[in-house]
Specification:
heterodimer, A: alpha+beta, Beta-Lactamase, 6-stranded antiparallel beta sheet, 5-stranded antiparallel beta sheet, 9 helices, 33% helix, B: mainly alpha, two-stranded antiparallel sheet, globular
């Protein structure tokens, strides 16, 4: 019966009358009111829900593009509140916050020595110390996290490292969100969680560039070594920060990721744009700017789209431009 | 017993004027499906780093030009317009080139090049009417089918909440999309009278309601309605009409305008098949008028500073689903869009329809586009020649979507023609049909000439 109806609509046929004639007729009055009544109840429910939601201040972390990132920040923030309230008794609740689909789990480490207090993925790590632990690039994780949770320019303590996911074979970039917690018994620790395999968020680029700007302003040319270190916080998702003079000559080259001087004003991307010239033009009137850059992609008709995020800074009184280049997020259908 | 012959009776035929209430609701239903296209100017402005005010103005201008284009298309004049319900929408095919033009020479260059592309499309419309022999039912059917196929990726991405590559698809979006689709299909299959006629509108509102109930909610989005001006004329004086021209962009804009014409050609053929199912061969005169209207809209978009507009495949599919093909629905929808362009508050409210809801609506429309195309293809006997033409054209056409890496090796001027299944299938269909029927055509030509001599 149903397949016949589907076939009918595909053939653009009308419902045959004789098919209906054999059916018992329902009382007209009931039939007339059921649908409008259901629609009215639904409308009232939706309106009520809308009014309730408009009055409820909810955080959606709109600065992040990826749903996974937003969920991660939300989960870690909830875990922090739970730990502050219940202390170690909250650990069983943290287990429930784990998401296998997103590869998301939580961990809690003691701030003073990096002792693992809780690990959602590998309980065998509880009791071990993270203070000497580094990723494949040599990033000292405990040291970086301890620094970033106190960094006001990195509100959610983002740390990026290069690691293989549990039961995985290949190295991937992982971004971890970390928040400092003081348990009810006074122990200072941090709770965090990470996700593998997502792209670099523009927010990550913004955090790296703002921190680099701060470093340049406070330490001048001495900051360059830290900006270039692969084991430092400025190297993430195979990109790092670059540094330009106002005349477009590079101090740290965005492609070579090392100290190299060349004129980037003449650089033309895959579609003939002058992204750095455009960037400097924008930064002549604004403190920060982002421009699009297209890179050749030999296996696709579509060039790979990247975003340059940069801001004005100073190095020992000399005006400079500090920025980074990341892959632009693309909708799945534009792949 | 049900009739063996399919009943293609229309609810509102081409020249029928629906009663006022129905006219407004049907126009609103068609207008809701165009929302995805109104977001294109935002993408464009975001790419070159323009301001929010500029984005709002461009959205308004695009809505106005879409409205004008839809009216011109529906009201068939002597040499412009098809007289079919084939609404205009912001066309994604011009997006990448428009960005290049803006970056290279600012908005005046984009406007100038779009104006040029529009003129090219208008010129092509005069040529198309002389090429009737190139479009037998088999090729027409393939083109119409591929119009539906080519919007599948966009439709399904929206159905799943339009996630960024690498991101997670959330269950709430799947539920919202599925509920919307079920309500639309259910209303269309088992609904009667107005429920069947407004199946899409009912589905959109139910889906939107479900989304409000279960999807993570951002009140800031809804507060935006209060922040945008209620009424604003998006024109800012004569400076808006400044046009620039660059010879280096002529070739890429020329190629894209040919591809745009091909897509509109497919849409107009589909609209014709749905509106006049009794036609045995395509009537090229209204199609040429439709292409002229499409070119005119693109040129006007360039002149006033909107993004390029194009005919909308999903709206033609919706017309097939509801069997309401009255051109007056197009006129009324056009007026609505022009008004919405002058009332940014309305446009902002409409733009809040969740992606899965829109995705479900487009998937529903796709069904009818694809099936209309297949029906048209099957109206020609499937002998060995036609099987070879259809099979090879569709296989090669679909391969541009399945293995785009292979076609990336083509010379750059050929790449746009093989960048999507629609353009590739249409071009190859025309070529293969002529090649595989060369002996038959030659014999017919010789016979005709011989008879002429005798």
């Amino acid at each position: 019966m149903r397949s016949a109806a589907i076939l009918r609509i595909l053939r653009m046929e009308e419902k045959p009358r004789d098919e209906l004639e054999g059916q018992p007729k329902q009382p007209k009055s009931a039939k007339r009111f059921i649908l409008p009544l259901l629609a009215l109840v639904f409308l009232l429910f939706v309106t009520g829900r809308l009014i309730y939601l408009m009055k409820t201040p909810g955080k959606l972390y709109r600065q992040y593009t990826f749903h996974v990132t937003r969920e991660l920040v939300k989960t870690v923030t909830e875990a922090k509140i739970l730990l502050e309230e219940k202390g170690e008794k909250a650990f069983p609740f943290l287990d429930k916050m784990k998401s296998n689909q997103m590869g998301l789990y939580l961990y809690v480490y003691r701030s003073s020595d990096g002792m693992c207090l809780y690990h959602g993925e590998n309980p065998a790590l509880v009791g071990t110390r993270l203070d000497k632990f580094t990723d494949q690039l040599g990033k000292p994780l405990h040291k970086l996290i301890s620094r970033e949770i106190k960094n006001p320019l990195n509100r959610y303590g983002w740390v990026h490292y290069y690691w293989n996911r549990p039961r995985g074979l290949f190295l991937e970039w992982k971004s971890a969100c970390n928040l400092g917690v003081t348990l009810p018994d006074g122990i200072k620790c941090y709770v965090g969680g990470g996700c593998y395999g997502i792209g670099a968020e523009l927010e990550f680029a913004r955090i790296a560039v703002i921190n680099a700007d701060h470093l340049l302003k406070t330490r001048g040319e001495e900051a360059l070594a830290e900006l270039l270190a692969p084991a430092g916080p400025y190297f993430f998702y195979n990109t790092s920060v670059f540094l330009l003079r106002e005349n477009g000559r590079s101090i740290i080259d965005p492609v070579l990721k090392e100290r190299y001087e060349r004129n980037l004003l003449k650089f033309q991307d895959a579609v003939g744009h002058y992204p750095f010239k455009n960037l400097l033009r924008r930064l002549a009137t604004e403190d920060e700017a982002q421009v699009v850059l297209y890179a050749h992609s030999p296996l696709s008709m579509n060039n790979q789209k990247k975003i340059i995020y940069a801001r004005r800074s100073t190095m020992r009184g000399e005006p400079v431009i500090v920025g980074t280049v990341i892959d632009a997020p693309r909708s799945v259908w534009q792949q | 017993m049900a009739s063996e012959k399919p009943d293609t009776k229309l609810v509102y035929g081409q020249n029928d004027v629906p009663p006022a209430g129905h006219l407004i609701m049907l126009s609103l239903q068609q207008g809701m499906l165009l929302i995805l296209g109104t977001m294109l100017p935002v993408l464009l402005v975001k790419e070159f780093g323009g301001s929010t005010e500029m984005a709002i103005r461009m959205v308004s201008l695009t809505m106005i030009i879409s409205g004008v284009g839809t009216i011109v298309q529906a009201v068939r004049l002597r040499w412009i317009g098809s007289g079919y319900l084939c609404p205009n929408i912001g066309g994604p095919s011009y997006l990448a080139l428009s960005i290049t033009a803006v970056v290279q020479g600012g908005l005046p260059l984009m406007q100038g090049m779009l104006f040029f592309a529009g003129i090219v499309e208008m010129f092509l419309s005069r040529v198309v009417s002389r090429l009737r022999a190139l479009f037998p039912p088999l090729v027409v059917g393939m083109t119409v089918m591929m119009v539906g196929v080519s919007i599948i990726p966009m439709a399904f991405a929206n159905f799943c909440g339009s996630p960024v590559a690498g991101d997670e698809v959330i269950w709430q979006d799947i539920v919202v999309g599925s509920v919307t689709l079920l309500v639309i299909v259910g209303s269309n299959l088992w609904g009667k009278g107005q429920v069947q006629l407004y199946c899409l509108l009912i589905g959109i509102f139910v889906g939107w309601g479900v989304s409000l109930c279960i999807t993570p909610f951002d009140p800031a989005q809804y507060r935006m309605i209060g922040e945008v001006p209620v009424f604003a004329i998006p024109f800012k004086g004569l400076s808006q009409f400044r046009l620039a021209f660059d010879w280096s962009l002529v070739l890429p804009f020329l190629v894209i305008s040919i591809c745009g014409s091909l897509k509109s050609f497919g849409n107009l053929l589909a609209a014709q098949k749905i509106t006049r199912p009794d036609l045995e061969k395509p009537d090229m005169e209204p199609i040429a008028g439709g292409l002229m209207a499409d070119g005119f809209s693109t040129a006007m978009a360039g002149l006033i500073g909107a993004v390029a507009v194009d005919t909308s495949s999903s709206n033609v599919g919706l017309a097939a689903a509801t069997r309401a093909v009255s051109r007056w629905i197009g006129v009324c929808m056009g007026v609505m869009y022009i008004l919405a362009g002058c009332f940014p508050v309305v446009a902002t409210a409409i733009a809040l329809v969740p992606s899965p809801v829109m995705g479900a609506a487009v998937i529903f429309a796709i069904c009818f586009m694809i099936l209309t195309g297949i029906k048209e293809m099957l109206s020609e006997p499937l002998d060995q020649r036609n099987i070879a033409v259809a099979g090879m054209s569709i296989s090669f056409g679909l391969s541009t979507g399945f293995v785009p890496e292979l076609f990336a090796q083509l010379p750059s001027f050929l790449q746009p023609l093989f960048s999507n299944p629609l353009a590739a299938t249409t071009i190859l269909g025309i070529i293969f049909y002529q090649i595989f029927h060369i002996d038959v055509n030659l014999a017919a030509w010789l016979k005709k000439n011989k008879m002429g001599v005798e």
